[in-house]
Amino acid sequence: MITDYTRLINKEYPLPPDYVPPDLIDIGLPFDCAPGNPKRLLEKRTAYAARELICRSQHEGISLCCISGYRSYDRQKELFRGSSYVAAPGTSEHQSGLALDLSSPSVQMELTEKFGDTSEGRWLASHAPFYGFILRYPLGKEDITRYPYEPWHIRFVTRTLAIYLTKTGMTLDEYYTIQKKGLHYDSLTR
């Protein structure tokens, strides 16, 4: 069943320009920007799941820092300006409040593929599903997601679905295709 948490957001399934999640909050996650910056906001359930994930990482000696959460349609428009590396307005998951970019001091807080090879990046990839997040643009799935590998970009989809997608190696795009065909992942796991 497609819900707000499993909704596919991309060039084929954009969000409307006026879409703003109804329950955006800043719960004090460690961000590389000052309080009051809109990129500190996340959808409420996503924010609490991210806090649990980051608290666990800190407990295990892993230093993760949030770089970007919510991004409005207008902000995405400013960043896009025809760049092939930035999603067009309406096609960014950040507008949903369900996406979060993370980095670490080991890569100078940059959003770089090198993050995936760090202890922080490896920890994130293996632990994110237990908190409801998937690595949205995994290595080797670029032809399916139509985005380059982004080991820093996680997306909240709920714990059950995140674990399922991670175990099967399926992307959210592939899951969405199955759902459109009327199949449900719970019947696929039996």
Description:
This protein has 190 residues and is of the alpha+beta class. Helix content is 32%, strand content 13%. It has helices spanning 44-59, 73-80, 119-127, 142-145, 159-168, 172-180, 185-188; strands at residues 24-25, 42-43, 65-68, 99-103, 133-137, 150-156. The strands form two sheets. Strands 3-4-6-5 form a four-stranded antiparallel beta sheet. A two-stranded antiparallel sheet has the order 1-2. It is globular. It starts with 23 loop residues before the first strand and ends with a helix. The relative contact order is 0.15. The mean pLDDT is 93.
Helix content: 25-40%
Number of strands: 6
Based on CA atoms alone, the radius of gyration comes out at 16 Å
Strand adjacency order, main sheet: 3-4-6-5
Q: What is the element string, with H for helices and E for strands?
A: EEHEHEHEHEHHH
Q: What gap, in angstroms, lies between the N and C termini? A: 17 Å
Q: What is the molecular shape?
A: globular
Number of alpha- plus pi-helical segments: 7
β content, as a range?
5-15%
Could you tell me the mean pLDDT?
93
Q: Can you summarize the main beta sheet?
A: 4 strands, antiparallel
In terms of structural class, how would the helical and strand content be classed?
alpha+beta
Question: Which spans of ≥5 residues are poorly predicted at pLDDT below 50?
Answer: none
